[in-house]
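#struct-pred

JT: dropping the chains for the assembly here, can someone run the whole complex?
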Amino acid sequence: MKKGLSALFLASSLWGYGEGVIYWAPHMSHGGGHSQGKHGGHGMGEVTMLHAMNLDGNGSVTLITPDLSKDDLNLTDTALTLPKATIGGYYALVLTHRSENQVDSAIRYLSQQGRPSKISPTKLTALPKTDLEIVPDPLHREHDRYTASKSYHFVLRLHNHPLANTTVFLETRNTPAQSVITDAEGKFTVTLPNDFKNVQIGRSENKPSEFLLTTQHREGDTLYKNTLTMPYSLNPNDYWQSQPYGAGAIFIGFLGGLFFYRRHKKNQGVSRG
Amino acid sequence: MDKLLTLTALRRVIQLTAFVFFVYGAMIFTTFYTGDKLTQSLPALSCAYDMKGGDFCSLIPLQHQMDHRVSSIFTQGEKVLPALMGTLITLGTVAVLILILNKAFCGWLCPLGFFQDVFTMIGTKLGLTQLGSLSREAVNKIRPIKWFIFLFLVLILPLLTGIGFLGHEWGNPYCSICPSRIMTTAMGGDMSQIYISQASWGYFALSLIADLMFGLMVALALFVRQPFCRICPMLPMQTLFKKIGLLRLVKNGDSHCDSCGNCVKACPMDIYEIQDSTEHKNITHADCTLCGRCVEFCPHDGVMNLKYGPVTLLTSSKESFKKRIKIDKWWKE
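RK: done, full complex below.
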């Protein structure tokens, strides 16, 4: 088992994905491209086992639940099995590793089913979790999912304050790192690449992949590093759904309506005559 | 200014406010997650596909519950009550909201209803010849369609999908053809819901119907009042609870009613039954959207009444009828 994991880890290192940073990877995805089950929304199919990739030594793991309470969890080697969710909604999984003059951290948000927390997920994202933190702005909603070819907004914070003019890298398994720079309010936008391979027709036939956001900032003698990993799905409009045909069908429907109008006008002319 | 003091003008203001809330609510009012804080089971076509929206229409949870939960009675031998609990909660929420506002959700809050009204206003201003009322025969032919859509697209097909008789595309077939899905997402700047799918014949058929119907609805709305509302599956669901609604249309008819017919001409849903003479009776029909136009356009004192519980909110009168006719002429000029 350990050999297999090491081989997968080596393979991922050769591709350069997540090199030099710690990050969360769902079980079965740390060497490949897939992350979770086929089903998207409601937390169904969400992974229950993750790996703290590139973690060298001990790291502390905190699970922040949708009601904003915190649980400390223990890693087994680099693996983490999530406890059974009782509260439904978004959870934040935070990994922190401190060494001399360096603080590494990794965050991942997970959606789980359960009793509603009655607390908005914006409070979960607003909650300071690490010194340097990439924050989704906002997290997508229940029926949404991160999708290729779409743009998403994030905020970079240092000690809970926006961090401007800082480079953030976006990486996926199949696309080399691209960089963006945060604006004066620490905000930045990334467009997820359409880089799925061996695409099958039908959304449920294609498992999500993973994207990784990485950033670092030096303050005095301390170097802070942070990563955010999340799954993303392919965009059917890039493959088996045609938007121009859709617009064409709407136009044909509209013409059908105009045909009815002409007939109605004609009938009215006849009845008046 | 006097022209703005009508029930229709008030309705337009409320419709516009509701439209902004339901289509952009998550961006404007509180947080991105406004929808999570409300019921997610509104008896109005506020689409869950609109990620900027303020709340969900109750039809999406109903279809999902049929597909994923109710079907488990047949596939996994699940006990009936636990399997139906989600559906009962959704229906219970709808019942509470109907108790408060009855079918006024359609006439006053539904974003798709307002969207169609706007196109009718545009058509009127463009000078298009408006189709006053559909014939009684046409209305009778159209009416069963909404029941067919409700029973098959909202309940039966998703249930058969969950049991395993149908493919995944039939899990939420109503949402797949609903014009509100295209409208609300497009109004939020997201055009991704306008597509033709080639994933399977089922997906192809549903996406084609959705786009054709949306285009048809927009064109029809230019000269027909509320074309889609006539087949909307929200009406049957509201009909199930309409008797408990505190807001209702009460008629105290007299002999004039047989010959007048103003209420039917004013009704955007062409409900001929409201013309029938009756005494102190709740005449809130299955198709009624409680827009109140029949009250506004009734020329007889105290015949048509919009009531909330025991309180009369609006009653018809000769005076208000005259004023309303003048305003209507001014609007159509």
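JT: nice. Helices of chain A lie at 2-15, 121-126, 243-272. Residues 1-15, 37-44 of chain A have pLDDT under 50 and may be disordered.
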